[in-house]
Design brief:
The chain is α+β, with helices and mostly antiparallel strands. It has helices at residues 5-24, 131-138; strands at 35-41, 51-54, 57-61, 66-72, 75-82, 97-102, 107-113, 125-128, 142-143, 154-155. Strands 1, 4, 7, 8, 9 and 10 form a six-stranded mixed β-sheet that branches.
């Protein structure tokens, strides 16, 4: 059965239209208009791994001596955490919540800390950290183990800080 020229032309038009539509979609890696939040946790003897939430979405569990980042749209974002291993999120009065204002193309560094080195508290704390300090502390940690990532926006590349 021979193809008719009109069906070939229609097929080519459809292919061209689909290709054009695909090329017009924004790429996930396209982040020039977004900002980045880097989370890091220095080494703690505690084995706790608090779940980190950005705007109510569980993105990762923060293991000791690790870091990860997430690209977000510019604006205010709510950071929260919990230590519930089943990830059944319960909001209580002791929950740590931090709002950060992320500028377009900007970097915000957040250190996940505990009030004592033993990690006996019911929750971790988010400590905004200036890039000059974060640069030194990030040299002491490694990328988060991939099994603790729950959101496809999480990245494991170290930040590229601007020189002082």
């Amino acid at each position: 059965m021979a193809c008719r020229p009109s069906s070939i032309v229609n097929s080519m038009k459809l292919t061209g239209a689909l290709l054009g539509a695909l090329l017009s979609l924004p790429c996930v890696a396209q982040t020039a208009h977004q900002g980045t939040i880097y989370f890091f946790r220095r080494h703690y003897a505690a084995l706790t791994k608090p779940s980190v939430y950005v705007d109510g979405v569980r993105v990762a569990r923060m293991q000791s001596a690790s870091f990860f980042s997430i690209n977000v749209d510019p604006g205010v974002h709510r950071l929260s955490q919990d230590l519930n291993f089943q990830s059944n999120r319960s909001v209580n009065s002791e929950e740590e919540v931090t709002d950060v204002d992320v500028p377009a193309g900007g970097i915000i560094c957040i250190e996940v800390t505990f009030a004592d080195a033993r990690g006996l508290l019911k929750h971790a704390r988010f400590t905004p950290t200036p890039p000059s300090i974060a640069r030194d502390r990030l040299q002491e940690v490694h990328p988060l183990d991939a099994r603790w990532i729950f959101d496809r926006r999480v990245r494991l590349e170290p930040p590229e800080f601007q020189p002082n």
